[in-house]
Amino acid sequence: MMIQQSPILSVENLNVSFEGARGIFQILEGVEFSLYPNEILALVGETGCGKSVTAKSMLNLIPQLSRRRTGRVFFNENDLLKLSNRELRQVRGRSISMIFQNPQSSINPVFTLGEQIFRLIRMYLKDEIDRLRKQQNLKEKAAVRRIAKERLAEVGLTETDRLLKSHAHEISGGMAQRYKIALALLGSPAVLIADEATSALDVTVQAHILKLLKKMSQKKGTAILFITHDLGIAAQICDRVAVMYSGRIVEVGPTLDIFQNPLHPYTRGLLQAIPKLGEDEKLVPITGMIPDLADPPTGCRFHPRCDRQMDECCRKRPSYCSVTRTHTVACYLYS
Amino acid sequence: MTSNALISLKNIKTHFPYKKTLTGKAVSWIKAVDGVTLNFFAGECLGLVGESGCGKSTLGRSVLRLVPVKSGSITFDGEEIQDLNDHELRRFRPRMQMVFQDPRSSLNPKMTVLQILKEALFIRQELPKNEYLESAVQLMNMVDLRPEYLFRYPHEFSGGQQQRICIARALATEPEFLVFDEATSALDVSVQAQIINLMDALQKKLQLTYLFISHDLSIMEHICHRIAVMYAGQITEIQDAKALFRSPQHPYTKALRDAVPIADPTRNYDLASLKGEVPSLLNPPEGCRFHPRCEMATELCKHEPPKMENLKSGNWVRCHHHDKMK
């Protein structure tokens, strides 16, 4: 982990809200985090806490209808939120790419896998095609095919000839996710966002995909924002962990610190609620429920469920305070 | 745990027709459950684990006779139920119930919670009108929901509360045996812990027998007494839950265990992995069904299907080379 470096992506005070039938839903409330080159950052939290909205609103993938968004997302000194759609298209896929939860449904079912990867290669890798044509004296089509097969082999796919002719429904979930990773890495992005990329897969397949992502990140220096609800994954492959609760990041720190010395009461609650292999402690669930986003609790949004709440908690939102140089928490217990 | 088996399965096979001729005669079968022998002891929680598509849900449904079982024998409390017809089965239905993965889609959106519970209570016995309400309130208390929620509709509840309603409905017929088919997989960790604790408390209170189907090994180890591992339609290993993870006897169990990411960064996770994919149930590999993915496979494994061997009490394994497991 290279904290000394400047962040490749930094999100500052990101707010997103939607207008619904019951009023305004404040989905994100001042989200702040930074992603450094070469690191894997886990964004963990429960359903509906805004993990996916964070990722999607950075790339403007949420329809604008009835949505309000303020804040800044800096990437290469550009504020992504200020870019036009045309400018964003240069960023998506080339600089920041994304893989989604359900691989089979994020592949176009009408075209073969080959047609889809060839199109992207022609878009992103013009130089490499030209190089191959000159050096190996290949036709354009053959060059594209050669690159496709190389890239698919890189993510551990075999029988690439057959694969290029298949459609999305003919391959298994694990293969589809590998294929999507190959597509996402085609443009050599600096940042890869994996939104619950392994949640729909079996544990054995998941292990392969995690290993692959880690290897790719080390080999190509890609920074990964890994969105997950599985603390096990965060513990095992990520360098840093950001814990999110109801639209806010409540704690960020190096993985070891988060798991061995969790500070925020919510992080502690989460860690007590998961069964651990080989240990026989009774599970302690967090009492209460996720807040209603149309009418969120005032102050710290976790205070109604918190066992250590104080008077200040319901008055004002706690600001971030750094407990160590790398470990930050938003809770009045530490300020 | 007492030693008498509440339910025992002997060599049951559930095959689904895959291709049919013009006259409707099946020519190839998907062998979802292919020769499973298993006992459920009264008061225990038996876990069933395996990758998706290995037939674990079908096995759960076969036990309840919700899918047509092709052959084998199922005895419930000493009585053979495999060859009973639907009408004769009605006597047994209230005694075994099921809770499904997605609570939202297993509750009728047009009925209030009271109506949902009333339907199930009616199966047990016909009660006078006011007594339904009383029994329903009792059920709500049992699953830690407020009685005034009885007049609400399913969409007004969160996922965890909906799962509690499903459990209350299953308990309404006073069953002895409950099948939980991935019942906690759709829930968040903090809610999941609540449901698991509830299941645990109910089992102790009502002396229930559970079949807990899941792919999440860490939860299984937590609530199950014994765990059966399933691979390609067959049981490959049965062992005491704690021992299963400490000393797996089958290479597949070991691979499954090693693939689970543990929420402890100090523990080394080698992302050890199983190569290949789950075999097709239409045409499972010859010999040991696991051999194409197994590191220990020998010539013997390719031709000779291993038999279930009893190693010590309650520990069964289907592997030629189990003695080589560390």
How does this model look, in words?
The complex is a heterodimer of chains A (335) and B (326). Chain A has 335 residues and is α/β, with parallel strands linked by helices. Chain A is 33% helix and 22% strand. Chain A has 11 helices and 12 strands. In chain A, helix 7 (173-185) packs parallel to helix 8. Chain A is globular and about 75 Å long. Helix content of chain B is 29%, strand content 25%. In chain B, 45% of the residues are buried. The chains are: A alpha/beta (335), B alpha/beta (326).
Strand content of chain B: 15-25%
Characterize the main sheet of chain A.
8 strands, mixed
Number of helices of chain B: 10
Instruction: Identify the strand order in the major beta sheet of chain B.
Output: 6-7-8-3-9-10-12-11
First-to-last CA distance of chain B: 29 Å
Q: Nearest-angstrom radius of gyration of chain B?
A: 21 Å
What is Rg of chain A? 21 Å
Largest chain interface and its two residue counts?
A-B, 43 and 42 residues
- Largest sheet features of chain B: 8 strands, mixed
Count of DSSP strands of chain A: 12
What is the helix tally of chain A?
A: 11
Query: Numbering strands along the chain, what is their spatial order in the largest sheet of chain A?
Result: 6-7-8-3-9-10-12-11
The averaged pLDDT of chain B comes out at 89
Helix content of chain A: 25-40%
The shape of chain B, in one word, is globular
- What order do the helices and strands of chain A follow? EEEHEEHEHHHHHEHEHEEHHEE
Oligomer: heterodimer
Q: Could you list the spans of chain B in which at least 5 consecutive residues all have pLDDT below 50?
A: none
Spatial gap, N to C terminus of chain A: 26 Å
Counting DSSP E segments of at least 2 residues, the number of strands of chain B comes to: 12
Helix/strand order of chain B = EEEHEEHEHHHEHEHEEHHHEE
